[in-house]
Every structure is written in C-alpha cells, then in structure tokens.
Design a protein that fits this description.
Number of helices: 0
Largest sheet: 3 strands, antiparallel
Number of strands: 9
Mean pLDDT: 83
Distance between the termini: 98 Å
Strand order of the largest sheet: 1-2-3
Helix content: under 10%
Shape: rod-shaped
Order of helices and strands: EEEEEEEEE
Structural class: mainly beta
Low-confidence stretches: none
Amino acid sequence: MGDPCDGRGACGVGTVQCDPTDDTDMTTLCSTEPGGTQNQAAANDLLCNGIDDDCDGQTDEDRGVGMICDGAGACGAGELECATINTTRCSTDPGGSPHNPSGMDVCDGADNDCDGFVDETFPTIGNVCAGVGACGAGLIECSGPAATQCSTHPGGSQFTGATSDNTCTV
C-alpha cells in the first residue's frame, strides 16, 4: 500500500490504497479514482472530449459515443462520435470521420450529398409553373438526374392533355 499508481482516465497519479467498499481489505484502488481519498473523477462523462472524465474505464459513454446511428440522407449507418466537446454527430454525416458523400446532388427527391437537404441545387422544385395551352398551371418537379419540368407538361406527373406532337392541345 502507498505505492504510486496511475488513476484511470483523467484521475491522474495517486497512491495504492485499500478499497473502502471491500470489507476483506483484499481489493485495492488508486486514491485518485472514484471511492479513493483523493478522488479526482468528474461526476459523469458529460464532455465529449475523448477523455475518461469520470475515471470508470470508458470514454464519453454518457454521450452515446460508439453507438450505431443513421447518417443524414443517403449517407447510411455510422457510429456516434464527438463533433465538439458539447455535441455529437453520426460519423457518416458531413464532417464525420468516414464521411463519403457522392459529391453531387441529383434531382430525385433524396439527399444524395448527405448534407441534410433534398435537391437543394434545384431551387425551383415545388414552385408554380405555367402550363402550355389547356395543360394549366403545375409545379416544377424533377424530370431526370439534372433536369426539371413543369408537372402539367407532357411527361409530367400531372399531365392530362392530349398529345399529337408531344405538346398540350387547346
């Protein structure tokens, strides 16, 4: 007893002493760990900092770090990781450790570039558009990976006109 020891996590250097919770005096602990006479442990592991602040042998467990999470959009599953000392993110989200977006936003109603937004490079999606002839007004919608169309035009989701030369008739 009394020999120097390194406490777990952030607890630092202390001395070996008997564990006060063991009536047989057979178990020892480092004096700087929880239950020791020089306890330096934080009440819990609230900071997301890669340090075992509460000296329990686990790091950032109170933040859920290491648990499986779903990334934004098409990013897929990842692990929860520290983004800052106060926040976490899914590792597949933008800025995450294995973030690997496709790099392109495709007009398809999905978040292909994993930034939490859908089709944002096509800002007119959902805007009102004028139909041709009897086709009437519609909404701008995706018509392919990099194209948009008016929903009431030929090929649009709300097209109801007759076609002879692929245009609405009056």
